Amino acid sequence: MLAVNDLSVTYQNNEVLDGFNLDLEQGEIFALLGDSGSGKSSALRFIAGLDDAAKGKVELDGRQLSVNGKHQITPESRGVGMVFQDYALFPHMTVDKNIVFGISDQSKKEQKDRVKELLSLIGLEGIEKKYPHQLSGGEQQRVALARALAPSPKLLLLDEPFSSLDKNHRNQLASQVRLILKKAQVTSILVTHDEDEANALADKVGTIQNKQLTIK
């Protein structure tokens, strides 16, 4: 489903990644570990199309997204969803409005059906008309996940999505999110610095050290 080949990233003459290679199958969950500044988020941003790179290729579901470090497909056209550590929910919108934000081109019935389906998937039925401030941190993050899944992305990128929660809640939510992603059968990459969190969520784990990716 995803192939990243020979990715190299340089910021202000500082090389952070050199020869990063990754292959993922349909529905596979991969966790990317590394210290702050090791290049974890840089890899995600390149795959998402948010940044260019010195060199590298990305292919998703047989389609080339980036070649020789330059983007060929815009971020919004890649079929890639993202979940961030700050949830990024719109505080003035109810849960259902947040979830359908990325599928506004669908009919009202399709949107309503998709909200119902996703709330069932994340185990939060009946909260459609609540606002983000009425939810716990874990509930907000699951809603953010539902919003990212709404357009049925081929790839989901999660950048430190549980870092604002305490360790017990992080590991519990990671296990819940794993079940959600497996039910949705969406290929996913999690960036984290927490090894327990990575092991709770991922099928396989990779570590970035000295600009290189090593997969366990």
UniProtKB/TrEMBL annotation:
The keyword Transport applies. It holds the Pfam family ABC_tran. Gene3D superfamilies: P-loop containing nucleotide triphosphate hydrolases. Residues 2-215 form the ABC transporter domain. GO terms for molecular function: ABC-type ferric iron transporter activity; ATP binding; ATP hydrolysis activity. SUPFAM superfamilies: P-loop containing nucleoside triphosphate hydrolases. Keywords: ATP-binding, Cell membrane, Ion transport, Iron, Iron transport, Membrane, Nucleotide-binding, Transport. GO terms for cellular component: membrane. InterPro entries: AAA+_ATPase, ABC_SmlMolc_Importer, ABC_transporter-like_ATP-bd, ABC_transporter-like_CS, ABC_transpr_FbpC, P-loop_NTPase. This is Ferric iron ABC transporter, ATP-binding protein.
